[in-house]
Amino acid sequence: MVQVMDRAQELTPGEMALRSGVAVSALHFYEREGLITSRRTSGNQRRYSRDMLRRVAFIRMSQRLGIPLARIREAMATLPADRTPTSKDWARLSAAWRADLDERIVHLQRLRDNLTGCIGCGCLSLKVCALANPGDALAEEGPGAVRL
């Protein structure tokens, strides 16, 4: 049996964009990427269920944290399709990213600290610079401008 969606529970792309704070083109992109879904009316117009608002909010928050879209898609694929995701669902997804975020924070702190030192010394040496070439790793790739 085909379930008919209550039309009052649906949003047009314009309404969805207004409520979610993203452009209609971003909604279409998210849909092409398999992050959100819509149904088509008999006139071939998109309609979004209201639970897509939470999904879009989660996508935006995840992107702000630097989570790649592929990882967001994988995580969202584990969400239930038959109901609106709960706070427990969101907590489970975000907890899985905690270690990655902690690692990125440590990496960014090291970059910041090395950048400060680099600005202070002004050496601009690609051979010894801890920021541009830590441990002279580029020497293993041979002489010359290996990054060009």
Topology record:
Blueprint: E1 10-11, H1 13-20, H2 24-32, E2 39-40, E3 46-49, H3 52-64, H4 69-76, H5 87-121
Antiparallel strand pairs: 1-3, 2-3
Q: Descriptors for this entry?
A:
5% strand; Multidrug-efflux Transporter Regulator, Chain: A, Domain 2; single chain; 49% helix; 2 domains; mainly alpha; three-stranded antiparallel beta sheet
Descriptive overview:
A 3-stranded antiparallel beta sheet has the order 1-3-2. The chain has 148 residues and is mainly alpha-helical. It contains 5 helices and 3 strands; from the N terminus they run βααββααα. A hairpin with a 5-residue loop joins β2 and β3. It starts with 9 loop residues before the first strand and ends in a 27-residue tail after the last helix. The protein folds into 2 domains: 1-85, Multidrug-efflux Transporter Regulator, Chain: A, Domain 2, CATH 1.10.1660; 98-148, no CATH class. The longest helix has 35 residues, at 87-121. Helices cover 49% and strands 5% of the residues. The mean pLDDT is 80.
